[in-house]
Amino acid sequence: MTKEPKGFDKRMRPAGEMYVWLCAMGLAAGIIMVIGLLWVIVANGVQVFWPRPVYEVTLKDGSVIAASIVEDREKKVAEEGGQFAREYKLFTGNKDAYGRQFRYVDQNEIVSMNEPADIIVGEREGSGQAIFYPIELILADGKTVAADSPDFDATFQRLIDEAADARAKARHIDRGPIGGYSAKLKKIYLEKRLLQKRNPDEDKDLQAMDALFIQITKLSSDETEQKSELMAQYQALNDRGGIFAEMAVLNERERLLNEEFAPLLVQSQALKDSINKNTLRYRLIDGTEREYAAGKILLTYQPNQLTAIDKVLFFIGHFWMFLSEDPREANTEGGIFPAIFGTFVMTLLMSIAVMPFGVLAAIYLREYASQGLFTQAVRVAVNNLAGVPSIVYGVFGLGFFVYGMGSWIDGGADDPMAVASWSLWLVVLAVLIVATVLLAQEDYWKHRRWLKDNIRRQTVSTLSVIALILLGFLIYESPFFHGFFSDRLLLNEPTFGTGGVLWASLTLALMTVPVVVVATEEALAAVPRGVREASLACGASKWQTIQRIVMPASASGVLTGLILAMARGAGEVAPLMLVGVIKYVPELPLDTTAPFFHFERKFMHLGFHIYDLGFQSPDSEAAKPMVFATTFLLIVLVIILNLGAILIRDHLRRKYASGTF
Amino acid sequence: MTTAAPSESPAQTISSPDEQYIQVKDFSFWYGSSQVIFDQTFDMPKQKVTAFIGPSGCGKSTLLRCFNRMNDLIDGIHHTGDVQVGGESIFDPMLEVISLRKRVGMVFQKYNPFPKSIYENIVYSLRVAGRSKKSELDEVVERSLRSSALWDEVKDRLQDSALGLSGGQMQRLCIARAIANQPEILLMDEPCSALDPVATGKIEELIHSLKRQFTIVIVTHNMQQAARVSDRTAFFYLGKLIEYDETQKIFMNPEKSQTEDYVSGRFG
Which of A51, A55, A320, A605 makes the best surface tag, with the fewest CB within 10 Å? Predict the structure, then answer.
């Protein structure tokens, strides 16, 4: 025996203190990375909306630039003597005049910099921002208002407001009645084309008839002689009857439609024209004078005269515009509302699709399937699906959903089965269903011991799976189904047979199923055995136990799975590029024209928008801050969606608190 | 189902005027390949309390869980012999296990109320049986809670979560839940092992009053408890029924020395 020390050993320390420190460091590193990332995104993203002062920069060579400073950085190339000079990245705007919006200026070259008080920044409908001194307004009636006259500001503001008003009105007409008009016109056009397609022999004459019709409509009313001649030709074709008469009916419908909507079209065009009728003459800092339609200037401000409150208001206003407006100029200007909405709808659809799918699969896997080697293999396989690269899901979605299901919905099977063999298979299916139903009669088979119960049940489930697969196959191969949109397909216009928000959601649902399955399984396994037994002992069946006890108790865990799935799905871009996301679609997947849900439409997505802005944009320098702002919004959207799920989860947790098991 | 050949197991049928309600006949039971119950044959009388005692692992809980076929949940079990309730075999393939469990309620070792309100806990067995008439449910709740001596404590908070009750209250709630649908038999698997002495006392009183209505089988590790609450006691050891008799006789004057050693605490 070793000698026991007397009293307490004050040098004694608990083992493994080091590891506590290590764990804390790991967490700290994680937090620092997250905060750093958020900081970079927010700091860069916010820049877009914050007004920057504009400087008048005089260079050594005598030229003058008006620009705001974007970046102050060290030059890449060393000067003589190994010194790195500093340079400014300046935003000069006026892309239409200079051909570029940014320019780098060596700080050594700068003679002086000052902030001219009366310089104006104008945001324009095209060509980005203009930085200028106004000269005069040339009104539609030829009058001019000079910049130094007292009512210049009021007049200019009035023109901008009027233009905004006209733009909104024109937009309202275009989206509303004219939208309906185009849809009807398109339908007539479609029918005409179909008529031609279906009668290839008469195609030439039909085309001639169409051409005549167009000529007649273009003639003004005083060219009666020519008109009557053409009318006679037209009538001659019409008298041939049959498809020609049909064509004439369609033409007549088109004429009536055009007549009905002509005033609206004129009105819309007049509104658009009114925007261009007043002109602003302005002078750039280097003395060149330019003209620009006053109505196309969206707003102006004097950046060097803004007070702090003005700046905050400016920031809020611009941020709101970014949230609520459609993109302009190849996405580099304007807002990103369609992308926000598209991402939102897609994530929601995905959640709706993935939940029942994943939860039911997990219930069977955990509660019903016997826990053998096979079940374990299925579980491992499902878990591994989470590691499949997302682009693979995109390819699968393109092949299965778009080209498979989508084309089928559009035009039926490519190569349907012959009616005879199809009918034969139908009989097989019927026999299978009858056999399954007969075998499933518990009461009958209870008396007949020669058929072992478990064998019977296994047979029933196997047969029903086979029947289901056969049913799907037969529906797909049906020789009697020619698609819901076969007409449009004739004109090479697929409806569902091309990418759309529905297919994108289903593809992502497929991708996130493993996440939901794993989380649900964990949650189910965590429901204590005690309550299950108690429920069974109360006379509940297994399904009642699952439905009334197990599911409510595991609901919060299931929602955790959904949160993870949404976070993964909303941020995914690669597979979406194959199954429905495109650069610019002003139409939303949900709107007020019947049937309100347009899930076959292509859509915009924040993740793709980031890629598009950053790497596909004509002016990636200009788009850079937008990339950060969009990233910021994507994160905010994911957080909002998750918060929704978290709130539901907490509510459920409180309701089914299971603290004392 | 094959019936085991008659054996020389300690078949101890007590001649008694009571109706023999639960009858265990040549019953053996296996988990996979390990046998845990060996050829037991004995009967339990109606509206009496029968206690199962014995050291851990002697198969008393397993036997109890056979009575409502709770062991069906476990893979790889099988049995020989038969158990009858009121003259009917509980292993009859024509019998739906749900209808057996309606007649045989169970209270577990660890209180396990559902994460629902007190009210919903009690009416659960009625709800799963498809009964949902409000007046009927209300009546059942009050009757069950009164029978389990919980009514006065919870009558004002029936809609509160059952998980807010104390341990003893939860176990009495579980008893109320088990008797809500008026079973004939009440199985209790060490109902007091997780409770303090005061709560245990209350449960024991409850068992006394419940036996007027139900046939009770209770598994317990507590000798005093068995002596206090039961009319009959069965002593098991290593899956075998060693002795089964009137409780008084088992505790005062057992026939087997093993039994005497166990009840007097000299065992093992």
Answer: A320
If one counts every other C-beta atom within 10 angstroms of the C-beta of residue A636, the result is: 12
Q: Where are the domains of chain B?
A: 20-263
Per CB-CB distance under 8 Å, the chain B contacts of A656 are: 115-116
Among B98, B113, B116, the residue with its CB nearest the CB of A539 is B98
Do B108 and A530 make contact, defined as CB atoms within 8 angstroms?
A: yes
- CA-to-CA distance for A309 and A330, rounded, in angstroms? 32
Q: What is the DSSP code (8-state) at residue A189?
A: H
Which residues, 6 or more positions from B81, have their beta carbon under 8 angstroms from its beta carbon? B3, B4, B24, B25, B26, B27, B28, B39, B40, B41
Digitized pLDDT (tens) for each residue of chain B, 268 residues in all? 344 444 444 444 444 445 778 899 999 999 988 999 999 999 998 888 999 998 888 888 999 999 989 888 888 888 999 999 888 888 887 788 888 998 899 999 888 899 888 999 999 999 998 888 899 999 999 989 988 888 888 889 888 888 888 888 998 899 999 999 889 899 999 888 888 888 888 889 889 888 888 899 999 988 888 999 999 999 999 889 999 999 999 998 888 888 888 888 876 4
The per-residue pLDDT for A509 is: 94
Chain A interface test: which of B161, B165, B170, B195 (most A C-beta within 10 Å): B161
Question: Which DSSP letter does residue A297 get?
Answer: E
Q: What is the ipTM of this complex?
A: 0.88
Q: What is the CATH number of domain A334-392+515-655?
A: 1.10.3720.10
Say yes or no: B75 contacts chain A, CB-CB below 8 A. yes
Element (H, E) at A338: helix A337-363
- Please give the helix or strand (H or E) that residue A135 lies within, else none: strand A129-138
What are the residue boundaries of the structural domains of chain A, listed by start? 63-149+278-305, 176-276, 334-392+515-655
H/E run at residue A408: helix A407-411
Specify the residue for token string 């309701």: A655
**What is B20-263's CATH topology?**
Rossmann fold (3.40.50)
Q: CA-to-CA distance for B232 and B212, rounded, in angstroms?
A: 15
